[in-house]
Amino acid sequence: MKRVRLRFARGVEVEFVDRDRAVRQVSGIAERGTRFPLVVYGPEGCGKTALLRQAGAIFEEHGYSVVYVDPLAESVGDALHYTGPLRDIVREVLGLFPEPYSRIVDAAIRIIGEAMRRLRRPRVALLLDDLFQAVGPGVAERYVKALLNLIEYPPGDYESIVVMVSSSEGATRKTIGRHSWASPRLLWNMSKDGFAELYDKVPGPKPGYEEAWRLAGGNPRYLGKLYEANWDPAPVIDEIARTRGLEALAKTLGTRERELLQAMLSDPDTLFERLGEPEAQRLAEKLVELNMIVELWDRNEWLWIDTPPPEKDPGLGIGRHYAWQTPLHREAMRKALGHE
Ligand SMILES: Nc1ncnc2c1ncn2[C@@H]1O[C@H](COP(=O)(O)OP(=O)(O)OP(=O)(O)O)[C@@H](O)[C@H]1O
Ligand SMILES: [Mg+2]
Q1: Domain range holding 102?
Q2: What is the Cα–Cα distance from 115 to 66, expressed in whole angstroms?
Q3: pTM
Q4: Which ligand 1 atom is nearest residue 194's CA?
Q5: Average confidence score pLDDT of the chain
Q6: Is 55 in the pocket of ligand 1 (CB under 6 A)?
Q7: CA separation, residue 121 to residues 13, 41, 47, 84, 117 (Å)
Q8: Which of 1, 2, 19, 49 maximizes ligand 1 atoms within 8 Å of its Cβ, making it the mutation to test the pocket?
Q9: Is the C-beta atom of 113 inside 6 A of ligand 1?
């Protein structure tokens, strides 16, 4: 299998590492196709984009015509990637859109449709990164339905079709989950062994591996951020707090919410135990929306891409029902609470 190259941090590129189970799952998907759009959720920076890109390479090796869209990129050229034989179709379809950049997801769906019409029983794969961030949570459902239609009522014949979408938008999980239009799956941060492989590739002096693991909890983006901060966690924690307005949030909290958040620092499942209280429900919604915590499913392997997190890991802030996205997120919350 060809491993894709990824930008890891300033001046550092790495090859896609680990994720062995995910790679096996993707190869299985290449054999069978997807009956429903596969929607991959997971903490920010856990590796959804990396996995989607690697999946693109795997599908190509299995003879698929692949369209990969990064709708948040800054130009059409950066946003749309496709395998060679689609070139003419892509050029034609883009010509139909007066401003393809603003309609890149629609253009990609159209490209796949045209490929089905014109190629003889093709294998096609459509990979949409950050779909909901791009189209907005309000129309996320509509897009997922359109993708399902592409599978169920294709404009042409196909041998096999794969539709994969990624999202770190925890808030869209409920809106998508209430329909039977998609197969939602969770991708967690990297496992301890996989993360070690990535850590070994980080150049220069670095803290011991256990320290890196304890801070980033297997999240590859935050490993990169720690590297860029010369391994000082303080600015990384500050950035999490600042970008989400955690101090302001802390100021709006009532006594019960504050006390609940404090308890969540040692055990995120406290939130689950108290979900009967309206304050806890509000807090759960807010923290999911801010990408601070993730609501986990049970560890039933088929619900997960790659290996699920451990059942409980208090050190990393992982509970049975809820988890801090990384230990750094938990520290950012702790700090914001301390500022009051
Ligand atoms: N399996 C992997 N091997 C090597 N590097 C990886 C791997 N997974 C992720 N990375 C690196 O970690 C960083 C974050 O990964 P990525 O961008 O895929 O996260 P993401 O889940 O898509 O984040 P977001 O939620 O912001 O979209 C990137 O620099 C990427 O190159
Ligand atoms: Mg991404």
Answers
A1: 5-187
A2: 10
A3: 0.96
A4: 1
A5: 95
A6: no
A7: 37, 31, 32, 17, 9
A8: 49
A9: no
Q: Which of 125, 158, 187 is the last residue of a domain?
A: 187
Q: What is the CATH number of the domain that holds 86?
A: 3.40.50.300
- Kindly state whether residues 136 and 238 are assigned to the same domain: no
Note the pLDDT of residue 116: 97
Question: Per the structure, how many domains does the chain have?
Answer: 2
Strand partners, 65: 124
Atom of ligand 1 nearest to the CA of 50: 18
Contact (CB, 8 A) for 127 and 68:
yes
Atom number of ligand 1 nearest to Cα 8: 29
Q: Ligand 1 in contact with 44 (CB < 6 A)?
A: yes
Cα(10) to centroid(ligand 1), Å:
14
Contact 96, 35 (CB under 8 A): no
pLDDT of 339: 66
86: phi then psi, degrees, rounded to nearest 5: -85, -5
CA of 33 to the centre of ligand 2 (A): 22
Please state the separation of Cα 130 from the chain's center in Å. Answer: 7
Pairwise CA distance, residues 144 & 123, whole Å = 20
Residue range 171-209, pLDDT digits in tens = 788 888 888 999 999 999 999 999 999 999 999 999 999
